[in-house]
Amino acid sequence: MALRHRTALTNNSNQENVKNIKSTINVVPGQTRRAALGEIGNRVATLHGLDPINKNGQLVKKKPVSKQLIAVKEHHATTKPVNKLPVQQVKCVLKKDNIEVHPPIEVKQIECKQEVILDVPKSNIDAFSSDLLQIEDIDEADKTNPILVTIYSNDIYTYLRKLEARYPIQKGYLIGQEVNAKMRSVLIDWLVEVHQQFHLLQETLYLTVAIIDRFLQAVKTTTKKRLQLVGVTAMFIASKYEEMYAPDISDFVYITDNAYDKHQILQMEMLMTRTLDYSFGRPLSLHFLRRYSKIGRALPMHHTMAKYFLEQCLVHYEMCHYPPSLIAAAAMYLAFFIIGDEDNEGKIIWTNTLAHYSTYTKSDVLPIAREIAKLIVNAENSKYQAVRKKYVHSKHMKISLRPELKSPIMLEMAKLD
Predict the structure, then answer these.
(1) Strand partners of residue 95
(2) What secondary structure does DSSP assign to 252-312, as a single string?
(3) For residue 238, which of 277, 201, 208, 276 has the smallest C-alpha distance?
(4) 89: part of which helix (H) or strand (E)?
(5) What are the Cα distances from residue 39, in Å, to 33, 53, 84, 232, 402?
(6) How far, in Å, CA of 266 to CA of 233, rounded?
(7) How far is CA 94 from the centre of its chain?
(8) Residue 305 pLDDT > 60, yes or no?
(9) At residue 100, does pLDDT exceed 80?
(10) Domains in the chain, please, with CATH?
């Protein structure tokens, strides 16, 4: 009973407090009360879930809107107006009790076109789409492999093509020098054997030849006695650049039969690095060949055959001025040309996909492929046998003994001018 009585007292006290608060508020006639945390201002506003209030502070009930009217409004909101007429706007100015009405002002509406249709012939669109269908996305299957970084592959090879253009090898750069083409070929042929004895990476051999050509092109006073020193030092630098464990400098002294000592090799190393401005990032033909093998879906036989062609080109001076990307494309084309398979029989060798990714057409590749064919046909009678003996081993699929190298197709390719 005591609790009930206490509750009743508190309720009465609350009611009195509410009455006292209401009595202290002075309401001016014609003004509306502002709700707590509501919109600041004396304008009539509609709160969420409440009906609007008029000037006298009375609630104005909304008229129920029929479902048909809602449907009509939604229909007009989604449909476009058919006839667009000028809208008349009346501007009113209040002055005490009088109202001035200005003459109507025409407001012109600007019609906006939502769709822009390009006037392109249908035949051009069809031709463009058909060309796209013939180019295959070769990196689609490897997008889930983070090691292959397929998202950057095209940008990487675009950059490599810029680098090879930045560091070109000029045609006939040995003209007027004491070192001639025959001396260069003898040096490279010997370095191929040294490369095998040291069991170095493939990239080391290609980079060695690139360093030699760039140095001989820049320093035209290189003598015959120092040519072997240039070759050994170039392989020493390339080993440092490419190998995990580069051979010691004493190994290079031994391989020259003590013709040069450590001091001479180190002095030549400093001279060559300064001459080449410490830049050894010129791309190799082997880099591009791996990309082309993937694009053309080459078999191991095709890839190894193309590598044999590239190493033969390293030895011969007349092939050194071609860009690495172009000579790799020619080697890949020739490998596809002479080694056929049942799946590739009757198909185009240099497809649109190869032309797209390599940036070379068949007309660009074919002349260099003919020059390579001439070298391969005459390889058996050449004085430089290091590369040919290297590819006799089963490790390289005995490529240099393949009958396709002496086939009528190969002979015909070599005779074409």
Answers:
(1) 98
(2) HHHHTTTSS-HHHHHHHHHHHHHHTTT------HHHHHHHHHHHTT--HHHHHHHHHHHHH
(3) 208
(4) strand 87-89
(5) 11, 13, 37, 87, 91
(6) 8
(7) 68
(8) yes
(9) no
(10) 168-282 (1.10.472.10), 283-417 (1.10.472.10)
